[in-house]
Amino acid sequence: MENVKHFINGHPDAGFGKRHGPVYNPSTGEVLYQCLYGDAKTLDRAISVATEAGLSWGAASHAKRLEVTYRFRELIRENTDRMARLISIEHGKTIPDAKGEILRGLEAVEFATNAPHLTKGEYSRNVGGDIDVFTVREPVGVVGCIAPFNFPVMVPLMMATMAIACGNAVILKPSEKVPGSAILLGELWKEAGLPDGIWNVVNGDKEMVDGILDHPGIAAVSFVGSTPVGEYIYHRGTANNKRVACFTGGKNHMVVMPDADLESAANAFVSAGYGSASQRCMAISLLLPVGDETAERLLELIKPKIENMLVGPYNDPKADFGAVISGESKAAILRAIDVAEQEGATVVLDGRKLTVSGHEKGFYIGPTLLDRVTTKMEFYQKEVFGPARGIVRTASLEEAIAITNAHEFGNGAVIYTRNGEVARRFGMKVEAGMIGVNVPVPVPAGYFNFGGLRRSKFGESHLFGPDAARFYTKSKTISQRWPEPSEQSQYSMNFPSNS
Known about the structure:
CATH superfamily of the largest domain: Aldehyde Dehydrogenase, Chain A, domain 1
Low-confidence stretches: none
Distance between the termini: 72 Å
CATH class of the largest domain: Alpha Beta
Shape: globular
Number of strands: 22
Structural class: alpha/beta
Mean pLDDT: 94
Largest sheet: 7 strands, mixed
Strand content: 15-25%
Number of helices: 16
CATH topology of the largest domain: Aldehyde Dehydrogenase, Chain A, domain 1
């Protein structure tokens, strides 16, 4: 297959870089093609194109931007099967899972059609001295979007659609592991009528990330990925006087009370814990049953569900989930399980030796469940981006909340209970950005803000929702007065007041 190029000024572009990296099919472990990496010259060209195109797009009418955004939405729907297959072959997730990602990303596209409302200003007549004051919101210019491997379509849609709807031009750097979807999105934007130069894709690794963070032509940067990388991006980007919003790691706790519907809780834990081979920042990482009896009853329900899971290639219609993204990722997950066992965790279900017939070189790990994990274990403390989940036994709701709040991450937290007072207390006391009550993955709808707390987010903005429109626009306040032609004015040295 042909190497993956950049997408600049509405066309595939080989760029000027001399480096490249392999893109694997995780289901087989084989190299699909090479991804061409850009360099400083490639980025300069993309930003120059985006800056020029952004001047006209930023001045375009809301009606024109809406027309393009609506058409883009329809094209995504029309190309869902094609897009899902591309996601799956590069990522390893099953095709139904990829289609779910696309549909969820469409929520952000649909919400972006509200940009004219979200960017409306305010107006006050005659604040004093016949002076009227109003605010306007304008696009910030060229924005950089640095996307992760685990959602090759959904996250770029959540990052960039609102930016475009607000009149900005975009430089997207997708993960070099899954570059194909970003190019396809560019083709669909072009078909929808987006002017050339507004959606640009530059591929690469840390060199390209640093270029985006340092380049004076980029006004704002949005990032989704691991906490160490996000913290680095936040500090380097803000040091260069850019707006930066980073959405980072998660270790999402699921508390189950003795009064909960345990069958429902077990199903929620299995689906939210192991879907997409657990390569989701909002996956349930840790199960916290309150009381040993609750833990034992949950184990009885969970074990057969996990044992009956089928792991297989992305195009196997019977597969529950597929391979992890790379051989390096697989090795890191296996090490995390080994260390947990060495530190005293009980391996209830072990997926370390899984092989998939006919796909022996694929990057597969079977669903793994560890019991009696403690807060002192590395498995508890670090994000494990793969199908290994843990049970932390607790004696009370208060202990479960304390354990949840003690973790450095605060992306999401969930409780299963039939008691409204308990749910209310959980929601008030837990320090997490997204909280679920009898909801396993509390990712909000596209018209609510998405983002965690503590070290799960750097910066004050959110990934989608109303905050995204504020992030991608700058505010101006204009005070104006139109005196009568015959009015005489005099200078005054006093500080002006609106009296």
